[in-house]
């Protein structure tokens, strides 16, 4: 009997998880073996680790892979030796989830291990990377000093789900203290989900504005007060447009710089090919002739179908470097 698509995918997922857990146990032991070989070579070798590297080369194991496995074994031993994790509980983790747990803060490790160290008779949950990241996000959020106390209390009582607070904390971390305080005051005055959502959006645009503004050369050469412009945008409710404006200006300047670099590179390649070609390479010379217009100071490119009614020609002129020495080409 042929399995339905749902049953088939479920069985494949189950089999994959089993392989993943066997793979985790295997790699932990491989890491322990590699660590033993490395330590022995350190004690009896030349002190430079050449014996260990030779051992790895004989088995076609890269140095990066070896030390990654050793790190995994160290993490496993730390969790097990401290009694934080029971040996049989390792099977509850997928490989990625275990590595994520080992790399997390000690508080997160404890919370994850508490989930799988269930009393006998109760089935321990299967921990995936998603669960570990969720716990890590919740801990990071609740331990952050950027959230007002009233918001943390609301989160503790489930009045405000932590899934709304994690993005807010991430965006607040990008802002200077002055702007953090303004947003925190707004949340404190009205601590609910809608306010948190709005504050997250506002913090995101603020971070976007501030990050892009320092990269725009046109703004660096002016006496404009960026903070005042930002306050005005907030006051009239057009912060998102102001942030997009500054971001687009930054992208445009970067595009111009990349265009100039590509144009110089094209000229150098064309000159090189011209010298390497000749009468015996007519097709190569024809290629150079067709590309030649793009090596000139005036660049012309059609937008859309040249024969279409909506076609438009874009012309860009690159000024010579010696025309104005104060302005970079």
Automatic annotation (TrEMBL):
Highest taxon listed in the record's lineage: Bacteria
Protein name: Uncharacterized protein
Species name: Pegethrix bostrychoides GSE-TBD4-15B
Upper taxonomic lineage: Bacteria, Bacillati, Cyanobacteriota, Cyanophyceae, Oculatellales
